[in-house]
Amino acid sequence: MGLIISTPGVILPHLEAHYHLSDVRASLVFVVVPFGYLIGARLNNPFHRHLGRRGIALVALLCQMIFTGTAAGFHSPRPGGFLLFLAATVIGNVGTGLLDGSWCAWAAGLGGTRTNTMQGLLHGSFSTGAGWGPFLAASMFSVREMSWWTWYYVLLGAVVSQGLVTCLAFRRDDGKRYRVELEAVKRNEVAAPLALHQGESESVFAYAGVWTCAAYFLAYVGTEAAISGWIVTFMLRARHATPYLASLSSSGFWVGMAAGRFVLGFLTDKLGVRTATSAYLVIAILAQILGLAIRTSEVTMVIVTVVGFFLGPIFPSGIVAIAQILPRGRHVEAVSFVCSVGQVGAALLPFALGSLSQWLGIRVFEPFVLATLTMALLCWRWFPANAAATSPHVSTA
User: Fold this and answer.
1) What letters, b where the CB count within 10 A reaches 16 and e where it falls short, cover 253-265?
2) What CATH number does residue 103 fall under?
3) CB 61 within 8 A of CB 169
4) Nearest residue to 390 (alpha-carbon basis) of 338, 315, 316, 313
5) How far is CA 120 from CA 7, 116, 266, 311, in A?
6) 179-206 burial string, b = 16+ CB within 10 Å, else e?
7) Where are the beta strands (DSSP E) in 148-231?
8) pLDDT at res. 259
């Protein structure tokens, strides 16, 4: 998944050249992503009940094979070629929507008092793949001088490997086993606080905390997508970096994020998720302000890596927070919903950045990221501190 998610940023300049696209038209790559993701997120809960985690892994594998196979094999420079690429992107993100919500919710139930550490390991692995993606793609394009679509053959092999591993790992997790797990969870929660127990019969949308988390993910995931999607173009145009260094900047962002998720998860468990996440966002904002003041390609690359490091735990922290305020039986549905809203942000904010870039120039990149990071911090500070504050049966006045 990490390899796929980090691909648009390094591919974007090649798509613009191959299909003769403006920044606004190229930004459609980000806009179509939520359509597939929302379909996957909507199907997540019923698929879990009928197919289990094993079925989720199989369906996601099929979707992502269609996407990568189409992108690798069909790339006509005519206008219809780009439309086909967009359609394949939608199908691929149905698989991403299924996997993202499923594995995040599954990991949220592990780790006991070390949930931030467990989430850090899961998302750190994702970011490791995302860090390798731009580096490997840049090596193929700049060193080997291969065409952009050859990268999708690599992704095709990666998604097949991922599918085989996850199907093997969850080979016994069918729909029947998942339904049995849900019944066991409900029985174990009989002794839970009354408001939380009564909330089992409520829709996840009745919880104020779900909507707050959705707004937080809208801002944060959109920021992450804007950075990874436009950093290469920004480095090429505004910092006049070489194509290889520009692609390494994208890798640096994701490598920093991977390191942050592996390292800071332990610190987050010590400090508490609310305090630690606020501190990480403040540091990322200060680093971004420094980037506005020092405008060399090398320093920008370092700052992007530092920002990635402190943004590493931000997404896992949201998953932990939403899991803490909801009954376990609601985790899959709630996590799928807030992640899907995050993907809406991952479409809207990069598209908005592309539109502003077309109008004002790519130099708006850094102020734009600074503004969206500030939005994410404000949403996080608004997040309820406990389950009682978010229960549909307890007043929050």
Assistant:
1) bbbbbbbbbbebb
2) 1.20.1250.20
3) no
4) 338
5) 22, 6, 8, 12
6) eebeeeeeeeeeebeeebbebeeeebee
7) none
8) 93
CA angle 42, 43, 47 (to 5 degrees): 150
Specify the length of the chain in residues: 397
In a domain, residue 202? The reply is no
- Cα dihedral sign for 276, 278, 284, 287? negative
Domain of 148? 1-110+119-187+208-382
Q: CA–CA separation, 215 vs 221, rounded Å?
A: 10
Q: What is the pLDDT at residue 321?
A: 87
Residue 203 placed within a domain: no
Q: Which residues of the chain have pLDDT under 50?
A: 191-192, 194-199, 201, 387-397
Instruction: Judge whether 174 and 51 are in contact, CB under 8 Å.
Output: yes
Confirm whether 395 is domain-assigned.
Answer: no
How many domains are there within the chain?
A: 1
245, part of any domain: yes
Q: Are 54 and 61 in contact (CB under 8 A)?
A: no
What pLDDT score does 120 carry?
A: 74
Token readout for 161 is 């490997």
